[in-house]
Amino acid sequence: MRAVDLRVELMPPSVDRQRLDELCRAISRIADLVLRGSESARQEIETFNARTGHAYSALDFAEYDGGRDLAEFALEAARPARPRITDITSDELVEIVRRLLAGDPESDYYLRVLDTNVPHPRVSDLIYHPPAELREASAEQIVDEALRYRPIAL
């Protein structure tokens, strides 16, 4: 299958420098409050989440630097938490998986798009920790598996 040009809605939205700086300051301030055990940390996190649409916890602020830097955290917070695209196509999902497999610099955002738009609850495992039958799978096979998933009613 040939590469697909992704629509604007599927691309990581750009974020202006002023917004990133504002979020960096807020994240640093909240991380400091959390690490000091401040009573106001919970309210600051709730306010931050309300402003960004995310659902970060105190742990996210206390330990963010274990896996990313401040600017990466701010960029994530500035972008939609669950970018749902109601008319996303299989070809577009395949292109997103291709980008993830290739280690695209925007992989974090593309993974969020994929996770939000397929029924599989652990779609990232299909890519990064695949079961034996998907170890050498193509992007098309991964998308087929992600779309085939149906939850079991209990």
TrEMBL record:
Highest taxon above the source species: Bacteria
Transmembrane segments: none
GO molecular function terms listed in the Swiss-Prot or TrEMBL record: toxic substance binding
GO BP annotations, alphabetical order: bacteriocin immunity
InterPro entries given in the database record: Colicin_E_sf, Colicin_pyocin
Positions in coiled-coil regions: none
Keywords: Bacteriocin immunity
Metal-binding listed as a keyword: no
Family: Belongs to the colicins ColE2/ColE8/ColE9 and pyocins S1/S2 family.
Protein name (Swiss-Prot/TrEMBL): Bacteriocin immunity protein
Origin species: Prescottella agglutinans
